[in-house]
Amino acid sequence: MARPTTVHVCSDCGHEALRWAGRCPGCGAWNTLVEEVRSGGSNGAGGAGRGARAGVGGSRGGTAVAPVRLGEVQASEVERLPTGIGELDRVLGGGIVPGSLVLIGGSPGIGKSTLTTMAVANLTGAGRKTLYVSAEESAAQIKLRAERLPGAALEIPVIAETDLGAVLATLERERPDVCVIDSVQTLHAAELTGAPGSVGQVREVAGEIMRVAKQHRIAVLLVGHVTKEGALAGPRVLEHLVDCVLQFEGERERTYRTLRALKNRFGSTSEAGVFEMRQGGLVEVLDASARFVGEATHAPGSVVLCAMEGSRPLLVEVQALVSPSELVPPRRVVSGIDRNRLALVLAVLTRHAGVAVGSADVFVNVVGGVRVDEPGADLAVALAVASAARGVALRGGNGADGEDGPPLACFGELGLTGELRSVAHPERRTAEAAKFGLGTIVTPEAGTLRRALRAAMPAERRPRAA
Ligand code: TYD
Ligand code: MG
């Protein structure tokens, strides 16, 4: 049997080298050589990507294909396999599409294995053929988890296998409707010399699994780990390959987790699901606002943001801390919002509202490990920082000054000239705040940041007009 050889290909210029080097001999870029399979013979075992393209098919052996006018293409309504987990189905756009490839990314311990196990447990219970491939845990470990989970978790057929070849052969033979690969970074393609999890390995593993999955219409939930920096380790290279990319976020120590779609060929990317990790697995949080606002404090630096999670309003607490700094430049630490957005808000606060924090450390946190990636969060950040900088609590949500009553709620985007700009779904946001008894809401109708601050700060502590 002809042994497939591997080549190292530069991801920048495409130069091919037989051996790995830190620097590409072709273009001189550092750390760009990625190992790939170059199938030697005609058997083409494992020859995805370049190997397949350059191989037998091509102009030599191919037969011409007749193009079809788009109008004549028979396209049926996309069929879905509901996982029975409402929040997951919503983020997917109504369930798993047969034959699709879904990448679920998240940091270790966040609950990816739990979520995928629960999903396939429901599918198994609904009579679908499933398969759980674990390259991380032994079958016994998976069983221990499944015992804690509701439903048909113990009915799931599992294999604990790290060899890609064995997994592909099993998929070909079993042909399940839905399969979980946990995780793409721990499977190992024997043809490549790189360690599991390296870019070459991850690409080969995903490419081969996709080939088999599309051939047999197997829907695949591909689990991938995320690095500390928040990027899918290696799998960045997979994002264009898969149909959906779901990100599972939150802090391991906290109970709340959010699931959002970064890419979705069959649905919207604006939906998000909220889960809570409990003893018996992940539980959907349908009344997320109540949880987050119930814990909101009425202290300086705290405000409630009426955010939108996809099409649903969500109330979250935004906290800020401003403290004198020894560092030049001072620290700007954020969690749950974009760092550049904070820089913008601080600049507008300084320039247009007379709140200067130039020589202080500023920390901003969205409580509960939630991420709010929308411009509507600007006003909340501005009010929290202004309140923290002055050391005064904002007005209560019932309009009264002082410590009692519900906290103040707000939303709105900040313009560079200090004006407030309207954001999507103002009625839904105000309605959600009202539902939880937050009567005083500062909205973009205030017009400018200065006026919003005046409405939010107790009378005697308002910033003086500059
Ligand atoms: P896990 O799904 O293994 O995370 P990942 O696959 O993303 O690495 O589980 C994460 C954590 O959840 C783990 O520390 C144990 C906890 N857990 C519960 O609290 N309750 C449960 O019912 C289960 C199954 C796990
Ligand atoms: Mg896991």
From TrEMBL:
Gene3D superfamilies cross-referenced by the UniProt entry: 3.30.230.10, P-loop containing nucleotide triphosphate hydrolases
Start and end residues of each stretch annotated as Lon-protease-like: 361-466
A single GO molecular function term of this UniProt record: damaged DNA binding
InterPro entries xrefs: AAA+_ATPase, DNA_repair_RadA, P-loop_NTPase, RecA_ATP-bd, Ribosomal_Su5_D2-typ_SF, Ribsml_uS5_D2-typ_fold_subgr, Rubredoxin_2
Annotated motif RadA KNRFG motif, positions: 263-267
GO CC annotations on file: cytosol
Residues where ATP binds: G106, S107, P108, G109, I110, G111, K112, S113
Keywords noted in UniProt: ATP-binding, DNA damage, DNA repair, DNA-binding, Hydrolase, Metal-binding, Nucleotide-binding, Stress response, Zinc, Zinc-finger
UniProt domain RecA family profile: residue ranges: 77-226
GO terms for biological process, alphabetical: recombinational repair
PANTHER family linked: DNA REPAIR PROTEIN RADA, DNA REPAIR PROTEIN RADA-LIKE PROTEIN
Family according to the record: Belongs to the RecA family. RadA subfamily.
Entries under NCBIfam families matching the protein: sms
Entry function: DNA-dependent ATPase involved in processing of recombination intermediates, plays a role in repairing DNA breaks. Stimulates the branch migration of RecA-mediated strand transfer reactions, allowing the 3' invading strand to extend heteroduplex DNA faster. Binds ssDNA in the presence of ADP but not other nucleotides, has ATPase activity that is stimulated by ssDNA and various branched DNA structures, but inhibited by SSB. Does not have RecA's homology-searching function. Plays a role in repairing double-strand DNA breaks, probably involving stabilizing or processing branched DNA or blocked replication forks.
Record remark: domains: The middle region has homology to RecA with ATPase motifs including the RadA KNRFG motif, while the C-terminus is homologous to Lon protease.
The name this protein goes by in its record: DNA repair protein RadA
Gene: radA
